[in-house]
Design a protein that fits this description.
Order of helices and strands: HHHHHEEHHHHEHHEEHEH
Strand content: 5-15%
Shape: elongated
Number of helices: 13
Length: 362
């Protein structure tokens, strides 16, 4: 039994080391996400090694009491940190809020160190027998707070990724939570780190896929996804196109950081108005598109009204934000093709833009 577990654990360590190398040598993920993933993987390797150590110490003919305690310090001390680090990799930078979350994990780590002498989180008797200590609930609390936070960050990520690919991320989180919790309920079932290893692999693969789908500035689907979507359009859909008015002037007058901020604000307004209806894309520098299948024209027009109100509100808060022109057209596979619908939407958009200029001149 011990030999089989050791072999499986060493396999997990090898896989984790390979993933660590892949992340370290890849530029696919953002630096912040890569850093937290690497930290989480490193701690997971340390936790797996500590679990191997505790099992071998417990089974040894000699009472390696101190070594047994040290391995438990590592295992119990780092485990609550791992879900937190994953949540930091998945989620957004939140400054002091992230640091505040480290307090329960830090308290748990301190009590683990004190457990070597006082048996607070765990105990290892002079006869080398392990048992849970009177403050074991602190470890459980720190761990489950980390689990709650990773679930929260995953939920937010689902929203950021327009809830189309995000459901996959949610399922990965559920798998990680369930798999790593089994051993807490049934200590003789050593599933935690095998599940953690598989979760890391799936998370990494999923995030690499996201990097190919999304525009990092606006968090909208990118041009590649837009073209793929056009190739796989439903029988009927509305296509809305957007163009930021006088965007070059924003860059020339206020600088490119202000231009990037304007694009980010416009994309947020597009998401807020249309993400519940369809998929939102950035298809060029200051050009956007929304594809809405399965809705009627009244619903589309209501979304457009919401979008225009949001832009007006944002312009009231920041005078540098330009206006946005838009147009839409209906695509029906039986009577037209995507190119014709896009051309019709473009024509309406330029009419919208020209009418606005005419009204401003009057």
């Amino acid at each position: 039994m011990l030999r089989n577990y050791t072999a499986l654990a060493l396999l997990n360590i090898t896989v984790m080391a390979l993933v660590l190398h892949m992340i370290a040598s890849s530029s696919v993920l953002p630096k912040r996400s890569s850093r937290f993933f690497m930290m989480a993987i490193s701690l997971t390797i340390a936790a797996i090694v500590s679990e191997i150590g505790t099992l071998h110490c417990a089974a040894a003919s000699k009472p390696y009491v101190l070594l047994h305690k040290l391995f438990n310090v590592i295992g119990f001390g780092v485990t609550p940190l791992i879900p937190l680090l994953i949540s930091f990799a998945v989620g957004e930078k939140r400054g002091n809020r992230n640091q505040f979350l480290l307090i329960p994990a830090a308290l748990n780590a301190l009590l683990c160190l004190l457990s070597v002498r006082y048996g607070l989180i765990f105990r290892v008797s002079d006869a080398n027998v392990y048992s849970r200590g009177p403050l074991f609930f602190v470890f459980l609390g720190a761990y489950f707070l980390s689990i709650i936070w990773i679930a929260t960050e995953t939920r937010d990520a689902v929203h950021r990724y327009q809830d189309k690919s995000g459901s996959t991320l949610l399922l990965i989180c559920v798998f990680f939570v369930v798999g790593t919790s089994v051993q807490l309920l049934f200590p003789q079932i050593y599933l935690t780190w095998a599940c953690a290893t598989m979760s890391f692999l799936i998370y990494y693969a999923f995030y690499c896929e996201l990097s190919l789908k999304f525009d990092p500035l606006t968090r909208l689907f990118n041009r590649r996804m837009y073209e793929n979507s056009l190739e796989n359009l439903a029988e009927s859909a509305f296509i809305i196109v957007f163009d930021v008015d006088d965007f070059k002037m924003v860059n020339d007058t206020y600088g490119h950081p202000a231009g990037d901020q304007a694009l980010a604000v416009v994309s947020t307004c597009i998401l807020d108005a249309f993400s519940a209806l369809g998929r939102c894309y950035r298809i060029g520098g200051d050009e956007f598109c929304v594809i809405i299948p399965g809705h009627d024209e009244d619903t589309v027009q209501a979304g457009i009204r919401r979008f225009l109100k949001l832009i007006i509100r944002e312009r009231a808060a920041d005078y540098r934000l330009p206006l946005v022109s838009l147009g839409y057209a209906h695509y029906d596979r039986a009577h037209s093709d995507p190119a014709s619908a896009i051309a019709a939407a473009d024509k309406q958009m330029y009419q919208f833009k020209q009418q606005r200029k005419t009204d401003a001149a009057c």
